[in-house]
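Reopening this ticket.

The earlier resolution said the output was attached, but the attachment link was broken on my side. Pasting everything inline this time so it's all in one place.
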Amino acid sequence: MQLTIERSALLKALGHVQSVVERRNTIPILSNVLLSAGRDRLAFAATDLDMEMVDEAEAQVQVEGQITAPAHTLYEIVRKLPEGAEVSLLYSGDDPRLVVSAGRSRFNLPVLPAGDFPVMSTDSAGASYVLPKEDLARLIDKTRFAVSTEETRYYLNGLYLHTVAEAGIPLLRAVATDGHRLALAETPAPEGAAGGPGVIVPRKTVDQVRRLLDDAGGPVEVTVSAQKIRFSMGEASLTSKVIDGAFPDYLRVIPRGNDKQADIDNALFAKAVDRVATISAEKSRSVKLAFDNDRVKLTVRNMEAGQAEEEVEIGYSDEPFEIGFNARYLLDVAGQITGENAAFRFADPASPTLVLDPGDPGVQYVLMPLRV
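Inline output:
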């Protein structure tokens, strides 16, 4: 294999695929990126056995061929080369090393045979649709903060992507929950999405897709089956296994009869929560909210660090009411509100609270209260 490729093109493609590779691997081939040169293209592939990322870039190929090389090492080398450099990759087969050279720099990297590289099978059955990249980015950004990190309930360790019909209108919906809070975002379902299986996309896959979207130039093609999901954006595509489990019936958690409503200036409220939470106990980070006559009083008591109080003017005309929340969860939700105000809807101090964003009717957040 012998080729020449521009540094920027090589760096962009390597940056996409190497992010899938785990830093520590017991299987050596999984630390490598598969390089396939042919027809003036250099193709890249990396996998962790649950997810596979592929990309390609234009190259001047003198000799076609395939080989695998250490993904992170190769990426770091290319990253540190000067901008505008022409990078030469050479693997002759006589020397068990890949020669990477640019200008006066030259590196010899160990290789493993391309035939040892695991290839993820693709599922032909399922649904396929095209989604504007802005819509997919919004679904991810509005919900992924609520994905659980507890491995015991593995079926919560991802984003539940599925279609629903509301008043006869098909919607593509993303839901995430960790048992303490829930985030839901939806967008009109693109043609071909309705009828596809609902799948739980793993947290790592969601993060990788979001990273890819920053470089994507156009819409995203999504292909989903009961076992796998693939996101294709231009030259790059990501195929991932989905979590084998049943996502809980989240509709039962979303309150429908909460009759107390507070309209809160989101930016002022978030800053107030952040200030009083400075002295909260690190474990619970609980903050008490006392609502009364167009104002809310935020209180934090910590036996060791003292007490903090702050009042914020809001729109509230119901009976006086107190409820407690985890400050971190309040700030996470506040960070997703696009409008000036956030609408909090309460039932009682022990029941879930619904938070709506008047600036984006397609999202809903649910927060479980704390005892304070």
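Reporter confirms the inline version is readable. The first helix runs from residue 7 to 18. The first strand starts at residue 2 and ends at 6.
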